[in-house]
Design brief:
Length: 125
């Protein structure tokens, strides 16, 4: 980033750096394998796939319906989705019992006080 004035940054000047919130080794191997298997169809789909503790698919929904479905679903433990993880999503996922997330991108997270494991598609390629 390059500073333009005292309060703003020019995003066009430098690529966005992503912080790695978790290491791939912290995510269940079976979940990483499942994510790799569906990555081709998932990327660009704007879909979310929720899985239970046995990695059975519980739900497949458009990303814009994810928040509502997380609120109504307590049987899911894992989330793989084509979208951006936000602080709101982290808080909701944590309160809904989600333990791990594999996602396209991680947004600007200032405060993650959960035990959620979060990795990106790029980390499993």
């Amino acid at each position: 980033y390059q500073r333009r004035d005292n309060d703003s940054w020019n995003r066009d000047e430098a690529p966005v750096e992503q912080k790695n919130y978790s290491e791939v080794e912290e995510i269940p191997v079976e979940l990483v394998t499942k994510a790799k298997d569906i990555l081709g169809e998932l990327e660009g789909s704007l879909e979310a796939h929720l899985y239970d503790s046995s990695l059975n698919e519980v739900l497949k929904v458009p990303v814009n319906e994810l928040v509502k479905n997380l609120e109504d679903n307590s049987s899911s433990e894992h989330l793989i989705f084509d979208g951006i993880v936000t602080e709101r999503l982290i808080e909701l996922a944590d309160s809904s019992g989600i333990k791990s997330i594999i996602t396209n991108r991680i947004g600007n997270i200032k405060n993650n006080k959960t035990s959620l494991k979060i990795i990106t598609f790029n980390q499993i390629r």
